Amino acid sequence: MTTEELLHFDREHIWHPYTSTIDPLPVYPVERAEGVTITLKDGRKLIDGMSSWWAAVHGYNHPVLNAAAKAQLDKMSHIMFGGFTHEPAVELAAKLLPLLPPSMQKIFFADSGSVAVEVAMKMAIQYWQSQGKQKKYAFATIRSGYHGDTWHAMSVCDPVTGMHGIFSGSLPVQYFIPQPSVRFEEKWDEKAIEPLKDLLEKHAEEIAALILEPVVQGAGGMYFYSPTFLIAARELCDRYQVLLIFDEIATGFGRTGRLFAWEWAGVEPDIMCIGKALTGGYIGHAVTVANHKVFDAFYSDNDRHALMHGPTFMGNALACSAALASIELFETQNYMEKIQKIEAITRREMEGFTDPRIREVRMMGGCVCVEVYDPAVLKGYQEYAYKRGVFSRPFLNYLYAMVPYIIKEEELVQVLQCMKDWFARR
Ligand code: PMP
Questions:
Q1: Looking at the whole model, is its pTM more than 0.90?
Q2: b/e per residue, 407-418, with b = 16+ CB within 10 A?
Q3: Other Cβ atoms closer than 10 A to 222
Q4: Which pLDDT value is given to residue 316?
Q5: Which of 60, 127, 146, 240 is flagged as catalytic?
């Protein structure tokens, strides 16, 4: 197929995410990708500013991940997890658990982040059913969150930036409180927890769990809030008998500057979801992890008390092998230091950068976000960056970079300079 034929067929028959079918955002035919460089079919090279939706933390075509996947491929790529288990899954679980809050000891494999969130929500509801609390089936969450595109995950996404407008009436109605008013670097103020306290005082009888992205909210609003909020939320959840779910799908594996964002506050949730960078961006996979309290509620010989979920590709052996190799790389190649360096370079390049169209520039760990007042200001940025040899895809009011951690200084500077030059052009 020529590039033109490929693009024509794609345009005629293939749906791309979140874009108009009449006036779609551009898609570029990729030939291969290596390190942080994406090579298109026409030979053009782009530096990756997105890590494939924040997952490809080691860049692409990594020899260690390739070797792990190839070795596993020669044994089996997949076997159903109902009735079987295997070394890649067990070894991955054994590797992962010591990295998580000490109370989290029970692991469920899922095939995507959204499914991991659905599983977490089902766990919470089944937990309360086992405690005889049949009315606890609603969820509380904070605005500007994002938890995935499947049904219940969507119901706890931000009502404005999420898809509530389109699916209103058919989505379950959940309880929203404002996003925490105290920002990451600000001094804690008890007032910031009052909305949650008011909500739980009134509705704890119906609420199974509070679900949130700890410290850094990603796709719902790119907002960084005080870790003390998590401490206060944990206390309230315990007081009002509500489970606490941390969605670390975007924040996990160093994106916020800590291996997992719960570490900023030392707060342990009851249930935690991890995905995206889990497999180093190689194959879709995720996990939902629970503490003993939640797990013990399923401790029964009655089949009706089993956790009712079992996706076809759960525990996929290729994904588990890639994930295991990815975590080993994290440990042996000092990734947390690489992330610190990315943050330092980003601060050096972006601190103080202003423009009348910019509301705020936010930076933390491996994330930088330029929020503009008017989303129209970012229209055309993807093509602009493409011409400058950078891949970037802003959304709503957010122009951001979440680069692979193996990026070199000059490549990162090129990604950031591209953002700055966009505002400088006439
Ligand atoms: N939760 C969070 C915080 C996410 O950022 C995402 C993906 N952007 C998801 C859940 C959903 O994950 P997936 O796309 O793998 O279903």
A1: yes
A2: beeebbebbbeb
A3: 26
A4: 98
A5: 146
